[in-house]
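Notes, Module 5: Reading structure tokens.

Key idea: the token line is not a picture. It is a compressed description, and you learn to read it the same way you learned to read a sequence, by spotting repeated patterns. We will look at two proteins. The first is printed below with its tokens.
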Amino acid sequence: MIDAPLALYQCTVPRDWLDYNGHVTESRYLLMVGDAADAFFRFVGIDEAYRSAGHSLYTAETHLHHLREASHGDRLGTTLQVLDAGPKSLHLFHTVRDKAANQPVATAEQLLVHVDMSSGRVVPMPPDLRKRIEAIRVAHAVLPRPAEVGHVMGIRRTEQEAPWNSG
């Protein structure tokens, strides 16, 4: 049985992760998501031996969405949902939660590609890896699609607030 979503990473916020406002700084959210992705990679068999054989997953794109503040000593856990998987790519969604309050703190959507490290080219995943990832994708297909997936960034304005109407 495959957990949906997968909960493979957790941490307690150290003091050096805080910014000048006393909250977890942006780069540390990316670090948490990267650590959660690395835990997922090991879970599916992308480990040191796999990388030594010349293949890996590279991040092509990440979208962070900050929902709440986290501070020193907070216990955070990151869940991971496989949204989609293709022969050469993987679409993941992470939710960072405050474990004590059971509230989401941040989300991250990632697109990863499978790479032949010697050529630097995107290549198909081997069948056994693809099969393991596909089993997780199927197990996660029962989960609702997070609202933040595909979120477009921009300033919301009414027609009267449009910058071209300011004069």
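Here is the second protein, with the sequence above and the tokens below, as before.
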Amino acid sequence: MRTTTERSARTLLAAGALALAAWFAGLAILAYAVEPSREVIVWAPEGRLPALTSLAAPVSVLDTPGGGFIRLRGESKGFVGALYAGGAWLVLPAAAGTCRSARPRRAA
């Protein structure tokens, strides 16, 4: 028999996992529908990454941190859809000015 504390912890864990999944799904939909950024982080099987960089839609490779991730810059409208069609599992907008940003930050 489970205690109330165990049920509360499981409920909280499930709610957190659902919120996290909804967040990533929302970002993926935003990247596909609106393309808010030309720079994206792509997650795909490592065997498909070379094929993603040679799509019909021109993209530039900015960073390859490994683990199935690659940072790209799209050069034309609709490149996110082409990435999904090429086998990408998840495409998220990349925030400029992050620690792995390809653009150098200016000193204050």
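Summary for the second protein:
- Residues 4-93 form one domain.
- Residues 101-108 have pLDDT under 50 and may be disordered.
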